[in-house]
Specification:
Blueprint: H1 2-17, H2 19-28, H3 36-47, E1 51-55, H4 62-72, E2 77-81, H5 88-92, E3 93-98, E4 103-108, E5 115-119, H6 126-138, E6 140-143, E7 146-149, E8 155-160, H7 173-176, E9 179-184, H8 190-199, H9 215-227, H10 232-246, E10 260-262, H11 266-282, H12 290-301, E11 306-307, H13 309-313, H14 318-328
Parallel strand pairs: 1-8, 1-9, 2-5, 5-8
Antiparallel strand pairs: 3-4, 6-7, 10-11
């Protein structure tokens, strides 16, 4: 009875606080048309302190979305165009010799921002990609002998182009696993694209984005997201889904065993739980439902499942495997 009352109080708290999310969505909607899915995933990453890997064709407003969101919460935004000749120092910064003082001074790189867009991350070699690892995981950067904490909130949004793979460097599994979500962006509908056309007849830059939230509001919302109730049944449901990617035969999915090279890591379980809490928060609820887990599952798991040569030969995707797991694992 006490737990029920606590959940009710938490539900009221979430409903009251999450009004800020509706204002953010409304403000971003002035410029971003027909990409509700992308905006929701951006907010989930922001609220759950997770980074996002966006895969989509050029021209789908990926850069515009994160830039607009940063303006709406008065946060610092930096864009890094990843190219084959990029160096790690171009991302994190470097030591510069000052001849007048006869010593070295630190020049911080573009990673020192609240929102960092790593555009076409797979265009840069592994050494540059790995320069992001410490920043993403530890929320700090080491330059010379000193480590510098990154300002919160800190969100890396990396994009990669699903076509033109020639001359690209696929992300290693260790780095892919550090992205909480991998979202696949598709084309807008005809009605949305008509609105986009009309919006661009004038000067898009003339559309003012008003700050509707502050960084302190996001930090507070993150704390509340952590408090969102996750029942023991939902916890077990999340574990069953993740373990089914590792041991499909033990979860009544023997046909998937030859298709999966490796399954989700413990980071997948953590990410799925946190992302489900954030998704429930976006729905203005203080508790997680199985539907929340199912809604966000593909985004959390698609880059954490390795396919065997057999699966690739049969053109079976990670999404199909996740769909079969979700249809088989018993819903609480």
């Amino acid at each position: 009875m006490q737990q029920s009352a606590d959940i009710q109080l938490l539900n009221e708290k979430v409903y009251s606080e999450s009004a800020i999310i509706a204002r953010l969505m409304q403000e971003c909607g002035k410029v971003i048309v027909g990409q509700q899915y992308m905006l929701e995933r951006l907010l989930i990453g922001l609220l759950a302190q997770g980074h996002i890997l966006l895969e989509g064709l050029p021209g789908l407003a990926k850069t515009l979305a994160i830039n607009t969101l940063s303006k709406a919460i008065e946060a610092k935004f930096q864009r890094i165009q990843f190219t084959p000749d990029l160096l790690p120092a171009d991302v994190v910064g470097t030591m510069i010799f000052n001849p007048t003082k006869n010593d070295f001074t630190v020049r911080k790189g573009p990673i020192f921002a609240n929102f960092v867009l790593a555009d076409e991350i797979n265009r840069a070699p592994a050494k540059v990609q790995s320069a992001l690892l410490e920043a993403m995981q530890e929320r700090q950067v080491t330059i010379g002998n000193e480590s510098y904490k990154l300002q919160e909130p800190f969100l890396v949004l990396a994009t990669q182009n699903p076509i033109e793979q020639e001359g690209t460097y696929p992300l290693p599994e260790a780095q892919s696993d550090r992205f909480m979500l991998k979202a696949k962006i598709s084309y807008p509908t005809k009605a949305d694209e008509l609105e986009i056309m009309r919006l661009n007849f004038g000067n898009v830059g003339a559309i003012p984005i008003q700050p509707v939230a502050k960084i302190e509001d996001i930090v507070k919302a993150r704390q509340t997201v952590r408090e969102v109730h996750l029942s023991e049944k939902i916890e077990k449901y999340i574990l069953e889904i993740v373990f089914a990617t590792r041991e499909p035969a033990a979860h009544n999915l023997p046909k998937l065993a030859p298709l999966i090279a490796y399954g989700g890591s413990p980071r997948a379980s953590i990410s799925l739980a946190l992302a489900s809490k954030a998704y429930a928060y976006l729905q203005r609820r203080g508790y997680v439902l199985p539907e929340d887990v199912r809604a966000i599952c593909k985004d959390v798991m698609r880059h954490r499942i390795g396919l065997t040569y057999e699966a690739q030969a049969e053109n079976i995707s990670q999404e199909e495997i996740i769909e079969k797991i979700l249809n088989t694992v018993q819903v609480p």
